[in-house]
Amino acid sequence: MRISVSSDMDEPVARALVARLRERGHEVTAHGALRPGDDPQWAACSAAAARDVAEGRADQAVVCCWTGTGASIAANKVPGVRAALCTDAYTADGARRWNDANVLALGLRLTSEPLLTEILDAWFAAAPGADAEDRENIARVSRLETASGDS
């Protein structure tokens, strides 16, 4: 799988994220502080990773900032992206199953390497669900991106 990764800081957990993804056999494209010479501001690098997903250059993305909040906000401004800030494995599983999230947002401050592994395990083990109510909610979110914003 092609995964775009961004971080506004070159922190140990961000480097561990890239390493864990590569160990799992994913092709990683780095943005922000993880790519020398790139813009490390969370809004810029998170949007760049999200655009990789929206434009088909990546299958998924993982965006990081100190709390994960700014990274998720910036990523969610890109049409076609459904970014979820996940602080634990249960949330990561639900984000994939119920929300068909295609971008994982992580906080650098509280995500330890063992927790990172748990979150990634859950994220990659889950798949978008087929429940009609969940699918309708995903469709409503997509309609919110249109000019009219009708849901």
Number of strands: 5
What share of the residues lie within helices?
40-55%
Morphology: globular
Strand content: 15-25%
Would you give an account of this structure?
The model has no long low-confidence stretch (mean pLDDT 94). This protein has helices at residues 12-23, 42-54, 69-76, 89-99, 113-125, 132-144, and strands at residues 2-7, 27-32, 60-65, 83-85, 103-107. The chain is built from 6 helices and 5 strands. With 151 residues, it is of the alpha/beta class. It has a 5-stranded parallel beta sheet with strand order 2-1-3-5-4, with helices on both faces. Helix 4 packs parallel to helix 5. 46% of the residues lie in helices and 17% in strands.
Features:
151 residues; alpha/beta; 5-stranded parallel beta sheet; 5 strands
Quick rundown:
This protein has 151 residues and is α/β, with parallel strands linked by helices.
Which helices and strands occur, and which strands form pairs?
Elements: E1 2-7, H1 12-23, E2 27-32, H2 42-54, E3 60-65, H3 69-76, E4 83-85, H4 89-99, E5 103-107, H5 113-125, H6 132-144
Parallel strand pairs: 1-2, 1-3, 3-5, 4-5
Helix pairs in contact: 2-3, 4-5
